[in-house]
Amino acid sequence: MSATVQVHRLTKRYRAVTALDRVSLELAAGQVYLLVGPNGAGKTTLLRTLAGLARPTAGSVRICGRPVSSLERPAQVIGACLDPIRLPALRSGRQHLACLATAARLPRQRAEEVLDLAGLPAQVASRRAGTYSLGTRQRLMLAAALLGDPQVIVLDEPTTGLDVHGVAWLRRQLRDWAGAGRTILLASHSLTELAAMADRVLVLDRGRLIREAARAELDHGADLQAALFELLTAHEGRQR
User: Fold this and answer.
1) SS3 content of the chain, % helix, strand, coil (to 5)
2) What pLDDT does residue 240 have?
3) What is the Cα gyration radius of the chain?
4) Closest Cα partner for 189 from 164, 159, 144?
5) Using N-to-C axis directions, what is the helix angle for 134-145 and 109-117, rounded to 10°?
6) pTM above 0.85?
C-alpha cells in the first residue's frame, strides 16, 4: 500500500519549546489514522505542519510525493479542519465558502456541493457565520476542508460541538472517504466516538511519536482509553 503522506524527522520548535521532536511516519491511502496523546503532546502542531500552516524547523513533509510547501493547488491535495472558531463573523456560510473556492481557483458551484455534503441547508448557509452554534461552525469548517475534493483530509477534534446526528454523519463520512481511497488523519480526545472508525492509532507524547499500531493490536479488542493510559504512563516512567 503506497504512502500518501511521508514525514521524515519532523521537528518544530517555538523558541525554547520543542513541540515536535524528529517525528517520522507514513500514512497510506484508504486508511483512517487516529492521533492521540495528552494535552501539549504536539498533536495540533503536527496537523498544522502537515497542512502547510506551520513551517518545520527541521525535517520534511511530502504529500502525494511532493513537498507540502511546493503544492501548486494545495486545496485539491489536502483539506484541513483545524479551528472551527475562526470564521468571518459578518459573512454568511455560503459567502465564506465561495471566497475560499475563488482563492483556490475552484468553481463557485463547489461551495453549494460541499454545503449539501456537510448537511447545511440553504437557510443556514445564508445566515452570518457569527450567528452559528459551535456545531454548525464545525460543519462549515468540514465543508471548507472538502472544497478541493482532496486526497488527504486532516481533522483536529472534528466532533467538537456536533450533536449525536452530527457525530453519526461524521463517522459515516470517515468510512466513505477512506473507502474512496483518501487518507484521513484526525486528532481527538473523543475516543468513544471515533476510535472504532480508526484503522491505525498514532500515539504522540512530548513531541515524539512513541507508538504506531493497528487499533486492534493496541487495545486487543478491549478499552482503547485504558490501553493508551497504560502506554503513556509507562513512557512517562521511562523519561524520569
Assistant:
1) 40, 30, 30
2) 58
3) 18
4) 159
5) 130
6) yes
